[in-house]
Amino acid sequence: MITSKQELNEFLERDRLALHQTRSHPRSFGDDVWKYQIRLRKTEWYWYSGKRLGNPFNAVRYLISKCLLSKRALKLGFTIPINVFDKGLSIAHYGTIVVNDHSKVGQNCRIQECVNLGATGGNSLSPIVGNNVFIGTVAKLIGGITVADGVSIAANAVVVKDILEPNTTWGGSRKKALEPQLEGFYRFSCL
Questions:
Q1: How confident is the model at residue 146 (pLDDT cuts 50, 70, 90)?
Q2: Average pLDDT value for residue range 134-154
Q3: Residue from 82, 83, 122, 95 nearest 32 by CA
């Protein structure tokens, strides 16, 4: 949650670095994902300052910013509520990304397209993801699970149980650990 203007600037800078942007501002044409992330962070700040600090001007700015965020999210295919991702968010591509508003994701998360972080069966229990986590293309994290720091979740993985082992790579529908063998090659080991 962004609680000060200084913290907003820190979030924006960490997101810029996570996206590997060398410019200080997005281009007029292009950089749509970066523009979305800037709008997301500003909406989070306006929500906090308008609702929590009682600033009526920022409450109005929050409503306007929320509308602009929704418009950009519709264009890119994102359903990401405010105050879910910590600083250092990196959304790699356009594409459907659905995140439950009860989910919490730590710092420096890299998320690919067609990812789902959600609850199941009408339950509000959602994933809690640690810091420095990579979530691959079409990965699904479902239910009240916990993912440790430094975990990489491979493409097409379905995670429905906790991953408590830090700095590991996981893949497949049965949540298998991938162990490094020779430079860049991995083998599956069943748990």
A1: very high
A2: 95
A3: 95
Residues whose CB falls within 8 Å of the CB of residue 101, separated by 6 or more in sequence, listed in order: 81, 84, 126
CA-to-CA dists, residue 168 to 27, 86, 91, angstroms: 36, 21, 21
Structure tokens at 129: 């993801």
* Token pair of 54 as six digits: 């009682």
CA angle 21, 62, 110 (to 5 degrees): 30
Residue 187 has pLDDT above 70, yes or no: no
The mean pLDDT of the chain is 89
Q: Look up the pTM and report it.
A: 0.88
Q: Is 116 helix (H, G, I), strand (E, B) or coil?
A: strand
Q: What is d(CA 176, CA 157) in angstroms, rounded to the nearest whole number?
A: 9
Return the closest-CA partner of residue 166 out of 183, 147, 149, 153: 149
Strand extents, DSSP E, 34-168: 78-79, 90-91, 97-99, 104-105, 110-111, 115-118, 128-129, 134-135, 140-142, 146-147, 152-153, 158-159
